[in-house]
Each structure stands twice: as structure tokens, then as C-alpha cells.
Prior knowledge:
- The structure is a single chain.
- By secondary structure, this protein is mostly beta strands.
- The protein has one domain: Porin.
- It has helices at 3-21, 42-46, 60-63, and strands at 34-35, 75-93, 102-126, 129-142, 145-150, 156-161, 164-177, 180-204, 213-237, 241-248, 251-265, 268-282, 285-295, 298-307, 313-318, 326-328, 335-347, 352-373, 376-395, 399-417, 421-440.
- It has a 21-stranded mixed sheet that branches.
Amino acid sequence: xxxxxxxxxxxxxxxxxxxxxxxxxxxxxxxxxxxxxxxxxxxxxxxxxxxxxxxxxxxxxxxxxxxxxxxxxxxxxxxxxxxxxxxxxxxxxxxxxxxxxxxxxxxxxxxxxxxxxxxxxxxxxxxxxxxxxxxxxxxxxxxxxxxxxxxxxxxxxxxxxxxxxxxxxxxxxxxxxxxxxxxxxxxxxxxxxxxxxxxxxxxxxxxxxxxxxxxxxxxxxxxxxxxxxxxxxxxxxxxxxxxxxxxxxxxxxxxxxxxxxxxxxxxxxxxxxxxxxxxxxxxxxxxxxxxxxxxxxxxxxxxxxxxxxxxxxxxxxxxxxxxxxxxxxxxxxxxxxxxxxxxxxxxxxxxxxxxxxxxxxxxxxxxxxxxxxxxxxxxxxxxxxxxxxxxxxxxxxxxxxxxxxxxxxxxxxxxxxxxxxxxxxxxxxxxxxxxxxxxxx
Length: 441
């Protein structure tokens, strides 16, 4: 291999690859990204997430901190989530430069079980006023996925990412008058996440007249996330009607990335380590909900959640001066979510048994990619899926158990044309199981 060949390879690695990869480090698995903008508890999940108007209990900090004031006993609880989503997409895999891509329909799956939420609420009386404290842990963005697809020359390409972004929260509430409370939740966002992608046996062309070479490409991104924001809540409980309003203050989420890349070109690999800090400045948002009990043991709930992500600003600050720092709007869509739910409680001699059903839309930050013609994309409506849910549980005197299941699907057609047009159906199938347990003190 000539010195000029290796020099040009190094230039490609240092300049071209970081510029492309660094643009979407947080969203490398965009088919798997999901903002967990709703709170915890399988009771809420069974009602489609229409819970902000009710919100009392051990998970109140994650919905509306003001509603903690209507919890009559100290409660603690945990929620486990089991995700088994099937998605597909289209990948245009180039054999590096100047070569027509290999077009593949890519079947992917998210399949993992994890601790999704944990929380507590403790009411107390002090200085002639009703107070409550609470808090807990929750997964804010789940980024876990793993899949592979056929590569070139008999190889397999692989992609995986673990964990996501979590929030550790502390909440406070006070009853300002009969039936009305105010509250505050402090959210600290934390977590490390690791992403890996591997492309095997690619044919690299540097320039006409030079020999080609088979190379492997590997990229690893180790990220540390940090950020802080607050939820300001107002809750009302007038017996038959309950309601809540929450203002979510702006969030400046910082991602510190150590980006390791290598081109494995025999006899020696060429590699580089880059570091970049990406800041996501997300705007103020709000949530509102109302719950009505028209008859004993029957509750109907309605929620609306607005996240104006179209106003998000991104900044990328590279450690190396040769890569320019940038600031831009990523062009995301606003996430406006509607949720409705219904619960009826059957009373028996040994326990109360609730039955729940619900519905919500699941919007995503991106639009439908309708066509790719010679590398140029055409976009349509915002990506969104309708999710249906149902659930039940057992409520004893001091202990309870809730179970909920959510499912939904969406699809649209995508045309890919690099000389021969082909239509692919892009599908998303959701399957979610939630289990919560809790107890009174």
C-alpha cells in the first residue's frame, strides 16, 4: 500500500467520517428513539397514559408533583417495562466511495426488559399546613437496540447501543387551599451510553488510478449525558372532577462524546479519537389533564402533552480546531400527544380489581421519508403511531399489583431509486408490557 494511499485514507477518516457521524450521535438509532414524556405506573399505562388529572400516589412526581398533596399515606412502588417492538427500514449500504449502494430491507427488533420507574410519596403536616415530599428514578429516553444485516463480500454489518438517558427526581408539594395544591419536581438527567457500528469488507476507492482495498470500518461512541430542569405543577381535586397543569422548564441536555474510529487497512489500521460536546437546548413545554368520576368506581381521563421540539437548538463543540464548531436547528417536529383512558373498579371480598382501557398517539421528532432518489430524500407527514392499551390489577389493604399491555402499529411506503425504483413498506409494530408493584405505610 502506498504512502499516499494511507495518507488519503487518514484524511478521509479525520475529516469526512466525524463530520457525518457527529451530526446524529444521540439519534444514531432513530428508529428506536422514544421520548418518555409520560409518567410511571402500570395503572397509568393501562389507561393510555391519561393520568395527569389523577396523578396521586408513588409516581406523582413524574406526572404532576402538586398531586402528591392528595396522597393520604406514604407509598412506594416500582415499575418494570418489557419492550418487544418489531420495525423495518431500508438501508443504502455503499461500498465506500463512488459505488452504487447495496439496497436492503432491514428487519430490526427492540427486545429488552428493564426497570422503568421507581418512586415514593410521603405526606406530612407541618405548621398547620399539608405538605408532601417524593421523588424517584425514571428512564427518560430509551436508546437500547441491537441488530445486524448482510454486508459486502460475505460479511455482516452490526449496530448496537445500550441504556439511554435517566432522570433522578426530588419533588415537593403544598396544599394552598381546600382541593388545590402546588408542587415542584427537580429533575437531574444522567447516564452513560455506548454505541457501536461495524462495516465489514468494504471496497475503498480513494481516487482514479489508485488500487482499491478491502477495509473494515468501526466506530465507537461513548457518551455521558447531563442536564437539569424543573416541573411546576398545579392540581385540583373537587371530588367528581380532578385536574392538573404542569409546566416543564427548558432543558439544556449536554452530551460529552468520546468518538473512536478506525479503518482496518492491512497491514496496519488507521484510527482516530475525537471528542465532541453536543448541547440540546429544548424549549419550555406543558402538559394538562382532567379526570371525571361520573359514577362510583368509574373514572374517565383526558390528557394533552405539548413538546415544541421544532424550537430545539443544537450546538457541537469539537475538541480539535480543525473541525469547526456549529450551531443549528435540527428540524425536528413538535410532539403533541393526546391520551384518553377509562377505569372501572370491581369490589370483592378479598381485593379491589380494576379494569382499564386507553388510547394515545405516539409522535416522533422526524417525518416520513417517502422517497430516496439518487441520495435525495423527499419527506411527508410526521411519524406517529396509535397505541391502544388495557390493564388490570389487584388492590389489597396495604399492597397492590398492576399490569398493563400496550400495542399498536403504523406503516407507509418508501420509494428507493438508485437506477431501479423499488417500493418498500416501512412498518412499526409496538408491543409493551408494564408491571407495577407498590405498598402503603
